[in-house]
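Notebook entry, structure prediction.
Reason for the run: the old model in the group folder had no record of what sequence produced it. Starting over properly, with the input documented here first.
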Amino acid sequence: MRRRVVVSVPPLLLLFSASSAAIEPISTSIAVGMAAALTGFLASYQNIFYYFHECCRPEWIAFNRTGLEADLGNKLFGQHLASHIIAKAVSGFVNNPNPKKPLVLSFHGWTGTGKNFASALIAENIYKEGTDSNFVHVFTSELHFPHAREMDTYKTQLQQWIKGNVSSCAQSMFIFDEMDKMHPGLIDSIKPYLDYYDKVDGVSYRKAIFIFLSNAGGESIVQTALDFWNAGRSREEIELKDVETSLALSVFNNRGSGLWHTSLIDKNLVDFFVPFLPLEYKHVVQCAMAAMSAQGLEPDAGVADKVARDLIYFPKSERVFSVKGCKTIDSKWEYYT
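New structure, fully documented this time:
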């Protein structure tokens, strides 16, 4: 006959086991709830972070086509041709979900005609922070690349800067000012990034924008504008076909320019050569009025007229075009008030 074995379990252990069985479902629910709450908090925290800290996201990078067209039409005085080209080129590029190469624009014209201003308008209508955005990078030849003997170093640095920034944000913008003062050959170091490649060393540059600003080619543009004026034709009749070929050749063959014999032109990697026409008296008046308005003052046509009349124009006898465009307006108009 088998003996019956009775195992004695301490009361405390029984209580613990019963309690565990009773509490377990609730504990699981709490744990799941806490996990869900934590996930929601982290997602919310991420959104808050994106809201206050500039990121390469639509919250901070969103193209405003209407805004760009309005700014070019209302703020960039005397540049009907440049305004039209820029609006079409930028809109077509940004709205293309799969561009084959980066957008490359080359702005040319005499000083004070609006090249820097136009590049700023582009930035302001793409990036929430405008030119202050972490994704807008401005290089000035005399500041960043001053010494010819350091060319090899500059080439390496330039490649690294661009690669690093595009790796962080594909929709980066690079503005090269004073291209006419850049050492010839330097800009060719970034040629692979502007070409028709899906990727270069694992990085795609196809959504980036490159803008070159230069006084080179200004004489060619001025001559075209003067020819139209001498023929009694309106400057608004000037079309891209009237200046593009001569402008490209002038820039390509300018030994003092950073674009001299560059492969960027030779390989047709510059999408548009954008001519900035010399400004007339009426445009200088508009600049002076805008400068007063920007200071929160009521624009005074009389003051604007005095400012415009005291500038130097050419040809000397006819006084058609302002030698310095609107370059010195901001510092001069207060003198006449």
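Summary: The mean pLDDT is 88.
The old model has been moved to the deprecated folder.
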